[in-house]
Sequence to fold (532 residues):
Amino acid sequence: MLKESIARLGNRTLQGVGRIGFAVRFFVAIMLHSGTAFRRFGLTIREMYFSGVQSLVIILVSGLFVGMVLGLQGYETLQTYGSEDALGILVAMSLVRELGPVVAALLFASRAGSAITAEIGLMKATEQLSAMEMMAVDPIARVVAPRFWAGVISMPLLAALFSAMGIFGGYLVGVQLIGVDEGSFWSQMQSAVDFEQDILNGVIKSVVFGIAITTIALFEGYDAPPTAEGVSGATTRTVVTSSLTVLALDFVLTAFMFRGLS
Amino acid sequence: MQHDNLVEIEDVAFDYGARPVLKGINLTAKRGQVIAIMGSSGCGKTTLLRLIGGQIKPRQGTVRVAGESLGELNQAGLYRLRRKMGMLFQFGALFTDMTVFDNVAFQLREHSDLPEDAIRDMVLMKLHAVGLRGAAHLMPAELSGGMARRVALARAIALDPQLVMYDEPFAGLDPISLGITGNLIRRLTDTLGLTSILVTHDVHESLKIVDYVYFVSEGVIVAEGTADDIRASDLPYVHQFVHGEAEGPVTFHYPAAPYVEDLRLGRQSA
Fold:
């Protein structure tokens, strides 16, 4: 019994490590075959429409509501200390540094990541990828790499829009609804938020998240068993794995970026 | 130098994991011929096509297409050689996000710098050859199975290849589409000077159009010959296959323990 379960554990670990190895090789292959995605940028733009533009609704609406909630909760806490003028700082900092990149990435993983996995998985299951290979067209260059770069480019833009909508939501609730002074809301925000420390770090985060999510989504699709269960399982794994990866990466990046900041 | 044989397979063996699929296959396809590879489902016919296309590599033996040994080619060489090949997949494998026109134009756009006018003419000519010029604007989801396969055939011959491979071109077609597809394969082979290799288990339809037949069973070639040889053959396997008999060297049952034993007959129930 014990021997068997140890063997099973070992087997599963080996499989897991093997899959990580395949994923890394897959990532390297994408890098090496990215020429087409840039030479024929139209291919990448087309995919940016599918993964970026079509994610706009969920990103903008969520951003607005997250910002509105931040406005309400922030005001409740800040007014205890009589510093409700700092509401603008609180809303902007939390969005630009954390919530913008992270929540936008989680939404992107479930909206665009799952769609990418399902599409690639079904293309494989219906032999479209094999057909492409037989037509002497490399599917990594023609299908995978444009989707990768589209995701990597879209992610920071979506995160920026999420943060902008969030700040607008915080303004609506804080200034228009509750009545925080509009001048101090904007001016404190402007003076406290640092371009390099806050905004640039947020952009770096979302680029990293974009790389992680699209790589996982593409790999899961490319690696999916060519059956109905195979593709559905791969889609689920994309959402779960990439969400967890985003949260873990966020901790690591935050630890490096904001260590020792006062 | 033009080789007389477009495809030469010598002593090829291939395994899926521990399961041997092909064990020492020899096969040649002369230019201008229609060759059929027949055998029951799961005997390794499709694997053979994938070997010729270079999608998988044999464990032993050599596969030569147009005089080039596939095992010695790198990816660039393989892709160069594949431009001389077309492949018709079992269910067409059309790109579902493109129209019929764009599917057929795919290779022309990928591999040439032809102006769009020229591409348009070439695509319409290929579609006309398969009788679907009027369907150019449709999406693959709007086509019937037989039409999708004809579009895929037009796509396979888009670059005027020397070799076209067909994976089960007759599976799941109605009698009319069946006849149309069979005639189309023969006609295109003759008019375009192609070599066609089809993998099929439809004996009657394919015997009408092929020049030479190979029978594959359990990983080896068990019989070969012209259509007439095959019809007249008295080899038990070929006879069973051609006449569709239930009894013969190929058994209906998957290998299992004796029936009586499996049902636990003759044993006292507790």
Q: What stands out?
A: Residues 139-178 of chain A form the longest helix (40 residues). Chain A has ten helices and no strands.
